[in-house]
Automatic annotation (TrEMBL):
Keyword Metal-binding included in the entry's annotation: no
Name the UniProt record assigns to this protein: Uncharacterized protein
Cellular location(s): Membrane
Protein topology in the membrane: Single-pass type II membrane protein
A GO molecular-function descriptor: glycosyltransferase activity
Keywords: Glycoprotein, Glycosyltransferase, Membrane, Transferase
InterPro entries per record: BC10-like, Glyco_trans_14
Chain segments annotated as transmembrane: none
Annotated organism of origin: Penstemon smallii
Cellular component aspect of the GO annotation: membrane
Length: 361
């Protein structure tokens, strides 16, 4: 029988006892995070919600068109007497900039907007206050690089559609977003009837749609090579920002979709190239109604010096009136309306220039 020297017994036992602790701290840094799967009950919950929203929208559509008037302006007054913007906040933390958003909505009629919040129930978040109180919708767990973020956005769209038929535009916002203009400026921009023709009563959606990104092939095959076929060919695959402003028509297309969702809800094998929420919405709308999508986003995101797929984060030392003016600039003929991403300690400096710069259009 081979005996273990007493001098080595204690270190050996210590190492064995330490292994579970070491694995607990080291494994998450080495192994990729386990992807959340969308369960059948969650899927059925969402389908039930979508069906209700689709049925209600169809009923309202028939009623509106029964009384349709010939001109675009009168059609607007009949179809949506007081058009509203639904602000959809998708978050897994508290809304750090809620005081700034409160100021954004101040002195604005509630007949012009609604607020809906999808807050991850698996994260401890302090109760929302002010105009955000009681605006949290039934939410489910979310995770980066997983289709749960698509589900959350679709859940917000369907809830807002079902809640108020007057919601005509749907703006998806993150907890790290700030407004760059006043509410009146944004509202008047979206509902500018001067951009409508008498024969073409349709506003456009503002969603980034890109087809020439250098990482497009890797993103397309993130779930496995050619797994997206036959529903989505590589030539149809698009990418873009996960934050958008959609018309009700396009929101309806999103919650009606089953065909593409079957592919985009599949788990990713290559997490470094997998951003489902940045792929699904641009691809779907590009395939179904490209002419009514501007292909530009209204949310300014700085990807210079991005880290691990995250954009540049602005800190208080970078804040100035000039930064706000620069963030408003876009490659299109219109201004950016929102910007991300800002650290929570930017709140006070932003509040100091809110009235004199941000909301002074």
């Amino acid at each position: 029988m081979i005996s273990t020297p007493k001098s080595t017994l204690f270190p050996t036992l210590t190492l064995l006892l330490s292994l579970p602790i070491l694995c607990f701290y080291i494994a998450p840094r080495i192994l990729p995070p386990r992807q959340i799967t969308i369960t059948l009950p969650d899927e059925l919950d969402d389908l039930s919600l979508f069906h209700k929203a689709i049925a209600m929208d169809s009923s309202n559509f028939s009623h509106r068109h029964h009384h349709r008037l010939p001109s675009a302006k009168s059609h607007l007054s009949t179809a949506i007497r007081r058009p509203k913007i639904a602000f959809l906040f998708l978050t897994n933390s508290q809304l750090h900039f809620s005081p700034l958003w409160e100021l954004f909505f101040s002195n604005v009629s509630h007949k012009q907007y609604n607020i809906y919040i999808h807050a991850d129930p698996f994260v401890k978040i302090p109760p929302f206050q002010g105009i955000f109180k009681s605006r949290v919708i039934p939410s489910k767990r979310t995770q980066r690089s997983s289709p749960t973020l698509i589900s959350a956005a679709r859940r917000l769209l369907a809830t807002a559609m079902l809640d108020d038929p007057s919601n005509a535009y749907f703006a998806l916002i993150s907890q790290h977003c700030i407004p760059l203009h006043s509410f009146s400026y944004f509202y008047n921009f979206l509902f500018d009837l001067g951009r409508l023709s008498v024969t073409d009563f349709e506003f456009s959606s503002y969603i980034e749609i890109l087809d020439n990104e250098p990482t497009l092939w890797d993103r397309y095959n993130a779930r496995g090579e050619n797994v997206m076929l036959p529903e989505v060919g590589f030539e149809e695959f698009r990418v873009g920002s996960q934050f958008f402003v959609l018309t009700r028509k396009h929101a309806l297309k999103v919650i009606k979709d089953r065909k593409l969702w079957r592919k985009f809800k599949l788990p990713c094998l290559n997490l470094d190239s997998c951003y489902p929420e940045e792929h699904y919405f641009p691809t779907l709308l590009s395939m179904q109604d490209p002419n009514k999508c501007t292909q530009f986003t209204l949310t300014n995101v700085n990807w210079t010096g991005s880290v691990n797929g995250h954009p540049h984060t602005y800190h208080p030392s970078e804040l100035s009136p000039q930064l706000i003016y620069n963030l408003r600039e876009s490659n299109s003929s219109y201004s950016h309306m929102f910007a991300r991403k800002f650290s929570p300690d930017c709140l006070n400096p932003l509040m100091e220039i809110a009235e004199s710069v941000i909301f002074k259009d």
